[in-house]
Amino acid sequence: MTIDYSKELPTVEGRLSISQIEELVAKPLDSKPDKKFFMALSISGGFLMIGAICLLLSFYYGIGLWGNNQPVGWGFDIVNFVFWVGIGHAGTLISAILFLLRQKWRTGIARFAEAMTIFAVMCAGLFPAIHTGRPWLDGYLLPYPNQHSLWVNFTSPLIWDVFAVSTYFTVSLVFWYVGLIPDFASLRDRTVSKIRKTVYSILSLGWRHSNRHWLHYEKAYLLLAGFATPLVLSVHTIVSFDFAVSILPGWHTTIFPPYFVAGAIFSGFAMVVTVLIFVRKIFDLQNIITMDHLEKMNKVILATGLMVGYAYGMEFFIAWYSGVQAEQFVFINRAFGPYAWAYWIMVSCNVIFPQLFWFRKIRRSIPLMLIIVILVNVGMWFERFVITVTSLHRDFLPSSWGYYIPTLYDVGILMGSFGLFFTLVILFTKTIPVVSISEVKAVTDGAQPSHHGGSHA
Amino acid sequence: MQHSEMNYVKKALPSNLRSIGLLLLIAGIILGLVAYFIDQPRAMFNYLISYMFLISIGVGSLFLISLEYVANADWSVPLRRVIEHLAAIIPLLFILVLPLFFSIHDLFHWSHPEAVSEDKILQGKAPYLNATFFIIRSIAAIVIWSLFYFFISRNSLKQDETKDQKLTKTNIKLSAAFIPFFAVTITVSAIDWMMSLEPHWFSTIFGVYFFAGTVVASLAAVTLFVVKLKEKEYLHPKVTNDHLFSLGALMFAFVNFWAYIAFSQYLLIWYADLPEETFWFLHRWEGSWTVFSIALIVMHFIVPYAVLLAQPAKMDMKKLKFISIWLLAAHLLDLFWLVMPNMSVHAHGYVFSWIDLVFPVFIVGFVILVFYYRANKTNLLPSGDPKLNRALDFHI
Q1: C-alpha distances in angstroms, A107 versus A185, A196, B370?
Q2: Cα(B232)–Cα(B207) distance, integer angstroms
Q3: Where are the domains of chain A?
Q4: A 351-390 → B contacts, CB under 8 A
Q5: In this structure, what are the phi and psi dihedrals at residue B155, rounded to the nearest 5 degrees?
Q6: Is 60 exceeded by the pLDDT of residue B5?
Q7: Does B276 contact A at CB distance below 8 Å?
Q8: Which residues contact B280 (CB under 8 A, 6 or more apart)?
Q9: Which of A154, A295, A314 to mutate to test the interface with B (most CBs of B within 10 A)?
């Protein structure tokens, strides 16, 4: 295939007019949910129920129901936490960092990715809350002056997590909402239902699409993007500190912060691609979430996958190079010990399979990319499993060696978190425009002044 | 001079640039040789810093070029030749590295067999840290950089005449292939030439740390040349503030990235407090090294952060010129801080010598001359690049 590099690729395909875009995006909101919607919702709701039941039982009987043991004190709860926080990195990366990098193609996918970020962070927040064992005491995680003079341990990265994740959640939510205001106004203007009109009027905060509004909006959006950018990087950095500030071989290594951030973007993008493949098909958005966009995301997956691979290699090399016996043992044990199966699932899913994205044909093939991105999701879950469990399961004394096997309750809660995530995603598709109407309009042909006309000129 | 996208006319660089470059280079070489005969190890440690600095600018520039191709960026196209000229340092590394090969003994503790025989840890590292393998790795890195430099820049130059879009495609492929090689070679260079100066110390982030500094330094060098050329009207008139803004924004981003990586490394080592790691930082907190450590934070992060934060600053030619020189100095300080404390003279604090001031003269002269000769042979505008029109139309 030949590409004409002198022209920009169209961000919106199929020569859609401005009104067609609005119609296309708003369509799912105007119609009543159909049978398929309820089927999907009941499946995800079923998963959610499984999780809820397992969780209630865990609260009732205590976390002895889980597989955690001595020496593996951190099991699925932490693995799932890190996994979901990671998933929650694509959205704000797409909306903030790609915005600062002037990547116009982000407009088609930003809204959905941001929503996924918010839902994923909600799933993530669940796990530290429950892994305390007595979640009704979680209020103590917030530092506030109290008569017991009881304070959180400010030097613990676990409490930094509380601040980092809650800040990230708040800013992502605000960012998402700010982006939604013009769209709520558009919806307000087109709806005929009285109730909807009231709701959208309240949500759109009196937006009139006036020049002054846009001026302020763009300034606010830029500032929020600048503000969110360090946050995206800081959250997973601090999650990595949970491990890396310790002196445990396999956890304590200086590359952890950028390695975790790269891994988070890697898994987040994989999840976004997984979901968008279905969304663009179901809602007929192939012209807005185009194959080019998917290909670009696959390139990001390839790049971040290589970064993750670099970190794996670096950890191994330095473990050998350091000459520290315990360090060397942990890594040999990871690759060839009792958890070798998990390690090799991780390596093949995260480093080997994504290499297929070097080929343009594979980057642009829906079935193949779907397989690869799902493998990446699996691999990234296993990465957290490998880091958490294999570093713990063989303590310094062979008398403190053990093996961690998750129980059905662990698996149930993991399923529940997926249930929660997809339930929220499914509800989102029917309540809020899944693509930013105003932003996509702004990047169509002819929307911006240009010397050479649009891409089709 | 009439500029247009279609019939670009080349303007020769002033010949006094050559005289200045030559003067500085010769002065640098003579002073360097004098230094060598007075204090051999000190001269070689300083030369190592210069070598790493030139790697930063040369190889870092090649990375910036490949980034443009891979990201399919358009704004940087009219500036790409400037970056290519700086990347022309790469093939000369073959010559520059030779003096270092003859001083491995002066520089590296692990190259002393008697030291290794008494040290169990060094014995363990011997399969990696030995002179033969060390030299092979260093040469392999330069070969890889040179090959990619040769092909990418050749295609870019060829396009000036042929205007063939296929060359862009080839360069995108080459660039994509270069980036993984770059990641590995820059890491190996950092570990070999700088981390192994203290052979007991290790840090997995060290390669990323050097990479961050490399990008900052090469961006600063590119910005400095671009601003200078724009001032003297060598660039296309449609290279505007918006192009400069992008350079400024990238510098700002990588200043932050450097600080992030440096802080991550420091915090994790400080927090875990393991003696096999902390001694490296403690050494840089001994005596007058304290001043260098604090100065590094101020110079490499706080000042550039403050200067570049506001949007107008990123377009202000004066500020950009100032901050790019400042950042080049900061990167030099960074390398100095990484390398110098390993010299035995400085065991309990920095001991001043005029030798430390000589080598930057050599670097400046060298870079100017390379740029001058490369620039005079070729166009300063990639006039055949298919993205050029888009790039000249670029607005934020």
Answers
A1: 18, 25, 43
A2: 38
A3: 5-131+168-443
A4: 358
A5: -65, -40
A6: no
A7: yes
A8: B198, B201, B203, B269
A9: A314
Residues of A with Cβ-Cβ distance to B390 under 8 angstroms: 6-8, 452
Under an 8 A CB cutoff, do A254 and B125 touch? no
User: ipTM more than 0.90?
Assistant: yes
**Alpha-carbon A228 to chain mean position:** 15
pLDDT digits (tens, 9 = 90+) for A186-199: 889 888 889 989 99
- Can you say how many angstroms the Cα of residue B117 is from the centroid of all Cα atoms in its chain? 36
Cβ-based burial of A398 (10 A; exposed 0-12, middle 13-18, buried ≥19) = exposed
- Which tens digits make up the pLDDT trace of A130-146? 988 888 888 888 888 88
Residues B264, A256: C-beta atoms closer than 8 Å: yes
Q: What is the pLDDT of residues B246-273, one digit of tens each?
A: 999 999 999 999 999 999 999 999 999 9
**Residue A152, CA distances (Å) to A157, A167, B16 in order:** 11, 17, 66
Is 0.80 topped by the overall pTM? yes
Higher pLDDT, A91 or A263: A263
pLDDT tens digits along A159-185: 999 999 999 999 999 999 999 999 999
User: How much helix, strand and coil, in percent to the nearest 5, is found in chain B?
Assistant: 80, 0, 20
Q: Which of B78, B65, B6, B4 is nearest to B380 (CA)?
A: B78
Q: Are B124 and A4 a contacting pair at CB < 8 A?
A: no
Is residue A454 within 8 angstroms of chain B, CB to CB? no
